[in-house]
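Q: Hi! First time asking for a complex rather than a single chain. Here are the components, and I think there are two in total. Is that enough to go on?
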Amino acid sequence: MEPITNNSDLETQINNAIENNLSGRMTILAALLAVQDDIGYIPQKALEIVSELNTTTVNDVWGVASFYPNFRFDPPTEHTIEICWGPSCHITGAQDIIKSCLTELNLETEGDTNDGFINFKFNTCLAACAQSPVGSVDHKIIGRLNKKKIIDLINNLKSQKK
Amino acid sequence: MQKFTDLKNKADQEYNTLLTKPRIRIGTDISGVAAGSIEISNELSKHISEHNLDITLSHVGGFGLSFAEPLIDIQMPDGSRVFYSNVTVDNVGKIVQNHLINGNPVYDLAFAYSGNLTNTNNTPEFYQLPENKLQKKVLTENFGEIDPTDIYEYIANDGYSALAKALFQMEADNVHKEILDSKLRGRGGAAFPTGVKLGFLKGSEAKEKYILCNCEEGDPGAWNDKAILESDPHRLVEGLILAAIATNASNGIIFIRHGNDIPIDRTKAAIKSAYENGLLGQNILGSEFTFDAEVVLVGESYVAGEETALMEAVEGKRAMPRYKPPFPAAFGVWGHPSNINNIKTIANLPSIISKGSSWFTSIGTETSTGTAILCLSGNINKPGLYEIEMGTTIRSVIEDICDGIPNNKELKLLQTGGPLGGVLNSSKLDTSIDFDSMAKAGAILGSGGIIVADQDVDVIDLTRMLIAFCQFESCGKCFPCRLGNSHLLEILNRICGKTSTESDIELMRKVGTNMQQGSLCGHGQLGFNPIKSALEYFKDDFDLALDTSISVPNVTINIPTRANRY
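A: Yes, that's all I need. Here is the structure of the assembled complex.
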């Protein structure tokens, strides 16, 4: 995680995210989701701001943030690929898709590529089981995946790197 | 009542105007989008504006016919409709030119038709297709038919009439009695009688009481809760208000898992338009009744579907179950008396109130009244979402509705009711789909997911995948579940890796019993189910796997586990 900084831009960004993006009532989880959605990660500063807004401790906020797989704690990659590993997708070939992704992205397991350009993540269910195997690229759900389709999608992302 | 009559008149008028123009419906639920319906919709819009056509393009939810998606449905002012399945971007121009501009449906691309059309070139009638005809649509009657973001379309199709009836023609006690008499049981998994559950909340004198509606829906293989929100969200809002009338509740909360943007956006829009039309808030439709509703997002957590864990998540904490008692009806969300119901349960209420409990009990079986919305996926010819009458057999669903297994293969395994439900083999195909018969067969109907696997499935590998899911999703609060699932996964890994010992099955049973007896919530209590049922129905597969003299390729899988995640 990045060290605590006094970056006032970041602070403004976090406050704006919570103010503009909060869905429903103020809670620790709602505030964290707002920050994640808006700036793509939870900086250390956000833990502090959320703890103040909820009149609690940073430890308490970290307890919530570390529980849900929704959150990441360093700046996001340009692109995200998620592949479902649930049973419908497993039966229809998810493991082959996952292996192709790991090979193409030169990764051992989920995480960011060496150049920090693409993040690869497992997902327990993307809710389009009837179109399995399912994945998503930059949160756009894509069904009926096969090896060729996923490799094409990855190559397309790679080609966007400046 | 006058307010509702005015609203209904306005809705009818809007709806009739809509019908005077050609209309294209396209399914844009998650399943449709995954199949590429947004690209098709964009292409349609392009052609419509290029040719300057006066046509309504509606984003509906979906008919549930996932195998046919992207599915578009063109309706002419005379009511005739032609359905095009698996539409590609390249076909759109041809369909627009021939059907919409020249008035000649493209039957060689058509999937089905309905209404008064001749010379349809052997195209089948849509509602006579087995996948439609064998369904019993109660909750899903508006799916694919109405624009889920248009409150008037819902009202013009009898929407909110049950609410008007409950507010102006019934006593609150009778609304509750009608739900009790319908024998409706919870659709979330536990199958508890809904009327009885609502009675717990009704008995509380507190001023602030909550009806909570659960769309956490983390079960892989089930998407019917989200489908209701995508295709007909007002049915849920109406059901929620009816549950509130029956219990005199003050607030409603619908939780949805963060990231499911389509259901989230459509539910928020439905709540907003319900407020704008006086159907939520102060003095609903001019009556004495006041009720507020909101959407709350929960983080990704399977255990958040458990009722007390969900309350913790709503309060913004880790989704971990609470100790009971106190029960939610006494001490629920923020300490207020609360009642949690599944979305499918609540969405049944409008039909029960408008058509009566005796109509509802005439559907289904004696102890499982009504319908079940099933989600079929895996190795099957026609995956999709189908609403069937309780009491239909699994065989009928798989063979008649879903057209069996692809490539002439044999069915080997069924996985029902989510990862914590059991697996079944083909000897159980004649099991009736109702709560009690499914439980007797050693599985659960649960959320309604049925995943089908053909003869090529590696049962031990699939069981390992299910336990890996349970291990990953254990919230970690109680150790029998947290450690138990890790032990089970380790043993299954060594069985798959051919390094198991003879005592491993016994060891798994011991761990499973401890989990069942010692865990705080269903996640641990039911966590051994996948292995228990696999051992019962696929003993030969386990014997083969345990026989270390037979060498098989070591199948490794790439999956996340809690331990390497944190």
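A: The two ends of chain B are 57 Å apart (CA to CA). Let me know if you'd like any chain examined more closely.
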